[in-house]
C-alpha cells in the first residue's frame, strides 16, 4: 500500500464510507489536485458554462480548486465539502469570495438553490446504487430551469481500501433523464494524473427551461 492508502496488489480491508480517506490524506490530495488546472480538466466542457455572474455550486469541492476558478470567472460560488480538513486546506490555498457549506450527497440538506450551474467532479463514484437515484433527484431540484450540470465519472477497478463504484455514463444519463435532465455533451479521456487503468467520462446535462403558466381567462357570466 502506498502513502495514500492505495493498494498495489495487496488487499486492504475497506473502511466504511470515504470521508476518512480525505481526512487522513488532505494535504497529499491537495498537492495532487492542485497540480491540475480547471481549464485542462474540463477541456471540451467550458463552452457549456452559463454566463457569469450565474450562481454556481461545486458539490464535493475538496481543496477548492474548481470553486476558486469559477469565482475568478465571475460566478457567485457555493462550495460544498463535508470534510473539515479539506475545507481548511482550501481556506489556506484560495482567497476568492466563495461560500463554504459543510454538507454532502445524497441529501445536501444545508444547500439552498436554485443554481444555474452545478459541478460534480469525481463525486458520483462514491454513491451506491440505492443513493444515486435520491441524489439525482436532489441535484435536479437544485437547478433552475435551463441550468447546467457538469459531471465527471471515474471508470476502472475501484480501490479496495475505500468506498468507490464504477458507475457507467449510460446509467447516469438514464437516471438524469428520469429527473428532467437532458444530456447535451459526452466525452471521455485518460486519467489526467496518469493512473493506469483509470479513465473518465465527462457529461453535461441541461434542465428543461421552466415555461410560465398561462393565466386562465376570467369566467364570464351568462349573457355577457
Give descriptors for this structure.
224 residues; alpha/beta; seven-stranded mixed beta sheet; globular
Beta-strand percentage range:
15-25%
Biggest sheet record: 7 strands, mixed
**In order across it, which strands form the biggest sheet?**
3-2-1-4-5-7-6
Separate helix tally = 7
- Give the class from helix and strand content and strand pairing: alpha/beta
| N-C termini distance | 85 Å
Mass-distribution shape: globular
What Rg is obtained from the alpha carbons, in whole angstroms?
Answer: 20 Å
Which series of helices and strands comes N to C?
Answer: HHHEHEHEEHEHEE
How many strands appear in the DSSP assignment?
Answer: 7
Residues in helices, as a percent range: 25-40%
Q: How would you concisely characterize the structure shown here?
A:
The protein is of the alpha/beta class and 224 residues long. It has seven helices and seven strands, in the order H-H-H-E-H-E-H-E-E-H-E-H-E-E. It has helices spanning 19-24, 26-33, 38-41, 65-72, 84-93, 131-142, 169-178; strands at residues 55-59, 76-80, 98-101, 115-121, 143-155, 181-190, 199-207.
Would you spell out the secondary-structure blueprint of this structure?
Elements: H1 19-24, H2 26-33, H3 38-41, E1 55-59, H4 65-72, E2 76-80, H5 84-93, E3 98-101, E4 115-121, H6 131-142, E5 143-155, H7 169-178, E6 181-190, E7 199-207
Amino acid at each position: 500500500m502506498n502513502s495514500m492508502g492505495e493498494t498495489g496488489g495487496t488487499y486492504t480491508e475497506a473502511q466504511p464510507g470515504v470521508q476518512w480517506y480525505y481526512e487522513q490524506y488532505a494535504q497529499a490530495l491537495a498537492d495532487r489536485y492542485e497540480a491540475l488546472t480547471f481549464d485542462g480538466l474540463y477541456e471540451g466542457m467550458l463552452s457549456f458554462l452559463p454566463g457569469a455572474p450565474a450562481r454556481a455550486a461545486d458539490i464535493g469541492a475538496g481543496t477548492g480548486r474548481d470553486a476558486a476558478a469559477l469565482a475568478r470567472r465571475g460566478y457567485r460560488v457555493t462550495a460544498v465539502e463535508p470534510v473539515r480538513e479539506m475545507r481548511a486546506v482550501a481556506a489556506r490555498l484560495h482567497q476568492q469570495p466563495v461560500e463554504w457549506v459543510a454538507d454532502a450527497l445524497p441529501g445536501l440538506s444545508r444547500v439552498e438553490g436554485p443554481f444555474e450551474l452545478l459541478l460534480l467532479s469525481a463525486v458520483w463514484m462514491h454513491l451506491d446504487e440505492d443513493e444515486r437515484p435520491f441524489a439525482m433527484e436532489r441535484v435536479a431540484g437544485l437547478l433552475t430551469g435551463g441550468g447546467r450540470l457538469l459531471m465527471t465519472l471515474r471508470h476502472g477497478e475501484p480501490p479496495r481500501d475505500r468506498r468507490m463504484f464504477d458507475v457507467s455514463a449510460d446509467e447516469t444519463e438514464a437516471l438524469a433523464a428520469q429527473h428532467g435532465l437532458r444530456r447535451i455533451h459526452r466525452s471521455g479521456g485518460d486519467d489526467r494524473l496518469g493512473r493506469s487503468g483509470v479513465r473518465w467520462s465527462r457529461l453535461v446535462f441541461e434542465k428543461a427551461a421552466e415555461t410560465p403558466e398561462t393565466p386562465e381567462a376570467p369566467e364570464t357570466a351568462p349573457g355577457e
